Amino acid sequence: MADASAPDTLANETIRADEAAHFGALAADWWNPAGSSAMLHRLNPVRLTFLREAVDLHWGGDVRSIRPLAGKTALDVGCGAGLLCEPLARLGANVTGVDAAAENIAAAVRHAAGGGLAITYHHGELASLGLGPFDLVTSMEVIEHVADKPAFVAQLAAHLADGGLMVLSTPNRTTASRLLLVGAAEALGAVPKGTHHWGDFITPDELRDLLADAGLIMGEPRGITWSPAKGLHLSDDLALNYIVTARAG
Q1: Are 117 and 97 in contact (CB under 8 A)?
Q2: Which comes out higher in pLDDT, residue 58 or 188?
Q3: pLDDT band at 41 (very low <50, low <70, confident <90, very high)
Q4: How far apart are CA 161 and CA 57, in angstroms?
Q5: What is the arithmetic mean of pLDDT over 29-56?
Q6: Which pLDDT belongs to residue 99?
Q7: pLDDT value of residue 13
Q8: Which of 13, 30, 147, 200 could form a disulfide with 9 if both were Cys (CB 3.0 to 4.6 A apart)?
Q9: Does 166 count as an annotated binding residue?
Q10: Do residues 76 and 98 touch, judged by C-beta distance below 8 A?
Q11: 3.30.43.10, 3.40.50.150, 2.60.120.10, 1.10.645.10: which CATH number matches 17-248?
Q12: Mean pLDDT on 52-72
């Protein structure tokens, strides 16, 4: 688990207090598509495209269904103000969201209520909440922010039901990501300063090993990249960001 002597880490938890404070300060603006979370708003449809295909393949569902997750439970860890939880609910899932920042959870509850969505939200460390297993476990752009990556992945795996599906996305640790996702993105105001710490990014091979240690098999990663013609889109180019599935071995 995390080093209790570290000043920015809550003892015996994967949450970094400074990271929670950073994202909690953005809570009021989270649902503004032109605000500080604008990049997440542009990224979310790409992640949902991957997730929908993964769900259909994993459970052999009807690709024409508008509620492919009906009857399924879903857990989104590091949910922020619910940007992924709400589409998951509209896809039919019984959704639970967990986040390190109380401010984010308050914003998520308000926004879900405004949309008439019944989503359960919790603030705190996943391992301490006493939640059961879920058919679908997601955690998007989160693992790079946690204090203890092996412990975090183990927590995710512990909440995956038998026969369940996990979907994760995260920046890759490459020269390109250092220049573009940290340097250029923050300098140009595409993301708030201090959002990314390049040394905490992990490569697909490192993530594959973390998942294997937790008893999970990682699928082939898909890149998320940008071009003037397509904007953000799924790609074979893993240099900046990637998204993967995992399932029990």
Answers
A1: no
A2: 58
A3: very high
A4: 17
A5: 93
A6: 96
A7: 80
A8: 147
A9: no
A10: yes
A11: 3.40.50.150
A12: 95
Residue 15: which of 188, 151, 204, 116 has the closest Cα? 151
Q: What are phi and psi of 18, to 5 degrees?
A: -70, -35
3-state secondary structure of 135: strand
The token pair at 74 is 């879903």
Cβ–Cβ < 8 Å for 51, 138: yes
**Domains of the chain: which residue ranges?**
17-248
pLDDT of residue 247: 97
Q: Give the model confidence (pLDDT) of 234-244 as tens digits.
A: 999 999 999 99
> Is 52 among the annotated ligand-binding positions?
no
User: What are residue 38's phi and psi, to 5 degrees?
Assistant: -55, -40
Q: Are the beta carbons of 51 and 76 closer than 8 angstroms? A: no
Alpha carbons 11 and 8: distance in angstroms, whole number: 9
β partners of residue 216: 248
Q: Is the dihedral of CA 176, 181, 183, 189 positive or negative?
A: positive
In the chain, % of residues over pLDDT 90? 76
Which residues, in sequence order, are bridge partners of residue 75?
Answer: 96, 137
In the chain, the largest separation of any two C-alpha atoms, in whole Å, equals: 52
Query: Is 78 annotated to bind ligand?
Result: yes
Amino acid making up residue 173 = R
**What does the alpha-carbon distance between residue 14 and residue 3 come to, in Å, rounded to a whole number?**
10
Does the annotation flag 47 for ligand binding? yes
